[in-house]
Specification:
Elements lengths: L1 E4 L4 E4 L7 E6 L10 H19 L3 E6 L6 H10 L3 H18 L15 H13 L3 E4 L2 E4 L15 H4 L17 E6 L14 E3 L3 H11 L3 E7 L3 H16 L5 E7 L2 E3 L2 E2 L10 H7 L2 H9 L7 E3 L1 H26 L11 H19 L4 H17 L1 H5 L2 H18 L16 H19 L3 H13 L2 E6 L2 E6 L18
Parallel strand pairs: 3-4, 3-9, 9-10, 11-13
Antiparallel strand pairs: 1-2, 5-6, 6-7, 7-8, 11-12, 14-15
Helix pairs in contact: 2-3, 4-6, 6-7, 9-10, 10-14, 11-12, 12-14, 15-16
The chain binds one RNA strand of 74 nucleotides through helix 1, helix 5, strand 9, helix 7 and strand 12.
Amino acid sequence: MRVFNTLTGRKEEFTPGERGLVKIYVCGITPYAPSHIGHARPAVFWDVVRRYLEYVGYTVRAIQNFTDIDDKIIAASASEGLPPLELADKYARQYLNEISELGVKPMQLYPKASEHVGEIITMIETLIAKGHAYEVGGDVYFSVKSFEEYGKLSHRTLEEMKPGARVEINEMKEHPMDFALWKAAKPGEPSWPSPWGNGRPGWHIECSAMSAKYLGLSFDMHGGGTELIFPHHENEIAQSEAFSGVKPMVRYWVHNELVNIRGEKMSKSLGNVITIREMLNKFPARAIRLFLLSAHYRTPLNFSEEGMEAAIRGCERLQTALDNLGAFCRDSKPEPGGSVLEPLEDAYEKAQLTFHESMQDDFNTPGAIAAVFDLVRELNAHQEWLASHPASAANYLDGLARMVSVLGIADDPRKAQGGAGDSALVGELVNLTLELRQKARQEKDWATSDAVRARLGKLGILVEDGPTGTKWKRINPDGGDVRASGATRIHA
RNA sequence: GGCGACAUAGCCAAGCGGUAAGGCAGGGGUCUGCAAAACCCCGAUCCCCGGUUCGAAUCCGGGUGUCGCCUCCA
C-alpha cells in the first residue's frame, strides 16, 4: 500500500510501526458552531481509511481530538450565553451525532484538550527544562530557533517566512515565529493553575500531549486538512520531537484538501457555509458519502447541487443492483448445475483487483468507485442468468457488498433493516397485493394493475415489472430516497 | 512578497511514459401492455507554447488561469 506523505512530498510504501497495528491521530474540530461539509470530508475519508485498513486485516487504533479551549469558543460563549466548556460540549456532541448519521463508525476515543491540561503542563515543563521554551509574564513560548528542523513539514524555512510579515508583533517573543504553549489568563476566560500562574494551553500543544498519551511518541498516521500543515502541524512536530527526542513523531502525514463551493472556500464571512445538518436534511447519507468520495482526498472538492444529484442517482443505481442480487439469492429455484458464466466471472475478478489496487494506491476512492460501477454494469447485464443461479448471485453479492461497505455507499439487502416501523407483516401484505395484481395482469386488466401500482406508490412502495418478475421496494414517498430494500420478486 | 497545488468530454472525475476508467446529463436503439429498471451504441487527444523521447495527458522549461497556505480554520 502506498500513501502520500506530506513530510516527504511523495507517495511512500506504507508499513505500520507495529506489525498489524495502525495508529492514527486525526485533527478534529473546534466545536463552537454547527459543523459544515468541510468537516464531513475528513470524517468520511478517515472512516473509509479505517474501514479499508480493517478490511485488509489491520487492527486500527484511531483517535480524534476536540479543541475545546479556544478563542472562538470563548467568543461564541459570550454571544450564546453558555459557559465555554458547555458550549464546546454541545457542539461536539452535535458533530458526533451528525457524522454518525453519515455512517462514520466511532473512533476509539475523542479526547478533549480541557481534560488533558495536566499532561500539557508536564510537557511544557519539560520543554522549558530542555531549553526549547521560555516563560515571559505568564505566557510560555516555544523557541523555533531551538528546533533546527522547524519548517520541515511545510517545506519552508524561517527565512522564507519573514518576507510576508503577516506575523503578529509581540515584543515579548524572542523570535517572531515563536508560538504560545501557554497563555496567561485574561479576566473572564476559563483558566487552570500552572507553574506560570493561571492560564490556558496554546492551540498546538494539546495534540502533542494527547497523541503522546494515547498513541505513543511515534505513531503511524496523522491526518487533517491542508490548512493545518502550517502552522499547526509544523508546531506539533517541533513540540513533540523537541520534547521526546523521538523521531519521527509521525511516520505518515496525510492531509486532505478542502471543500469549496462555487469555486470559493467555504467560510462564514463569505456566507456560503452549508452545514452537515442541512445536507442530511436534504440528501441521503449514502449519497453524501459518495459525493465526498468521488474526488481523491488530495484534490479540492467543489460542492454543487448537480454533483449531489449525480451522487444520488449513482447510489440508487448501486442499491438497485444489490437489491436485485438479494432477490435472486432468495429465489428457491434449483440451481441447474454449478455452472459459471465466464464474462461475469472475469468482470468480477477484474473489479476486485481494480478496487484493491485503487485503494492501495493512496486511497484512490474514485478509482475504487469506478471498479464498483464496472461490476454493477456486468451484473445488471446478466440479470436473467443470475436469477436462475442463486448460488452465484449470492457469491457476487458477497463480493460487491464487501466493496461497497468499505465505502459505505450502499447496503447489503440481506443485512439491511426494514423501513422504520415496517414489520414482516407489511412485506407479506405487499406480496399478497402483488400476487393479486399479477392475476389482473395475466388477464390483461391493465386498469386494475395500474391502479394497484399507483396506490402502492402513494404508500411509498415502488413497483417495477421486469423480465425477471415484479419487484417492489420501499421508498420515501416524497423524495426518491430508497429507505429499505424489500425487493421481492413475484413470479409471472 | 514567499511557499505549494491544480488545469482531462455539457457537469463531476480517474490516469504517474505506450495512443484517454467511472458517474451524472444528452441523443439513438433493445426489452416492456404501460411506467420504471436494465442493457447496447454515440462524445474529449487531455489550457497554450517549446523541449526530452521511438513514443507524453503523463517528464522538463516558459506562459496563462484557478485555488490553497503564509493570521483562527477540516
